[in-house]
Amino acid sequence: MAPKRPRGAGAFPKAVESPAPGRPDPDALYAALDLGTNSCRMLIAQPKGSGFHVVDSFSKSVQLGAGLERTGRLSRSSMSRTVQALRICQQKLKRNKVKRMRLIATEACRRAKNARDFIRQVKRETGLTLEIIQPEEEARLAVISCAPLVSTKTEQLLVVDIGGGSTELVWIDISSVPRRDRPSAIMRLHAGFHPAESPFPAAKVVDWISVPLGVATLRDQFHDVEDDAARFALMSWFFEENLADFAPYKDEQAREGFQIVGTSGTVTTVAASHLGLKRYDRTKVDGLRMTSDQIDKVIRGYLELGPQGRRRDPRIGEDRQALIMSGSAILQALLRLWPTDRLSVADRGLREGLLYAQMSADGVLEDGPF
């Protein structure tokens, strides 16, 4: 069970800011912070049944990777914005007296020449110790965060996490797992994509790939192309070219028993546009299933709006309008390769995966349905 969020303006998911009733026991709290190329996000939660209850949260667009594609370095202004956001996170952690936490950084810090200097600056100015994780762990966290959305009818699963600086794809075969155990088998991947022998039927990771192109980095690659439609087509083609090493790339996949789960601001924004939401509502978006045709219709609508129209569209939102076409180009490339009637929209990501992984490792989650 993932945390529920209140309605917020715009189509970009807003974080929960209201605390849980009563003061929770600090010994029962866990925190997860995800510092990406575009955003800084944190959740503080306590275990509840087979899921968790959110106590506090934070989300802000910090654009840490702004200019990284051009210079190979994190800029002074980007680092300053990010440190300011991390100070707020540190205050929330201190106020809630959180002891168990994982604070991670992803693609921007993996690529930047001055990332280690930045990590030291964060430690010096906020007291927080950021850990730069490798692409495989990032992919693994995205997968387990989506476990509750896996259908018991699914036999072949593709999990796609479209980030700001990279996109992770993981192909999983769960055909040998009993139907009712399939979501739990996905959750057990927190121990690794190739875990040791287990008494339980295991989910088999057929292949995974981390493409160093996300919504921000792909946009930056083609920023000099002036024509909107041409830029979109080039971005989609270029992303597909980068999938050539992914084992299932050339496989034809039957729609029966095949499911894609997409987790990102792009996917949730497309879902909100499809539903015609005036205000973002997580309860209507998370777990929604969309067909290739429905997604294609939304993307064609974005192209018809043009840059000015997208900027004014309340369903897209201020935080997402500059990135929605690069994200849509990635999404369209994936659906061109693997058309499906079972794309599940996940309003969840690395933070949820970090919480599940910590709680599972500590044995504080109950067995049973999510």
Tally the helices. 13
Strand-pairing-aware structural class:
alpha/beta
Query: What is the total number of structural domains?
Result: 2
CATH homology group of the largest domain: Exopolyphosphatase. Domain 2
By CATH, the topology of the largest domain is Nucleotidyltransferase, domain 5
Largest sheet: 6 strands, mixed
Please report the total strand number as a whole number.
13
Q: C-alpha Rg, in Å? A: 20 Å
In terms of per-residue confidence, which ranges show pLDDT below 50 for 5 or more consecutive residues?
1-20
| Percent helix range | 25-40%
In percent, how much strand structure appears in the residues? 15-25%
- The rough form would be described as globular
Mean pLDDT across residues: 88
CATH architecture annotation of the largest domain: 2-Layer Sandwich
Describe what you observe in this structure:
There is one protein chain. By secondary structure, the chain is an alpha/beta fold. The protein folds into two domains: about 10-135, 2-Layer Sandwich (Nucleotidyltransferase, domain 5); about 140-345, Nucleotidyltransferase, domain 5 (2-Layer Sandwich), CATH 3.30.420. It is built from 13 helices and 13 strands. It has helices at about 70, 75-95, 105-110, 115-125, 135-145, 180-185, 215-220, 230-240, 265-275, 280-285, 290-310, 325-335, 350-360; strands at about 10, 30-35, 40-50, 50-60, 100-105, 130, 155-160, 165-175, 205-210, 260-265, 280, 290, 345. The strands form three sheets. A six-stranded mixed sheet has the order 9-8-7-10-13-12, with helices on both faces. The longest helix has 21 residues, at about 290-310. It is globular, with a radius of gyration of 20 Å. The model is unreliable at about 1-20 (pLDDT under 50).
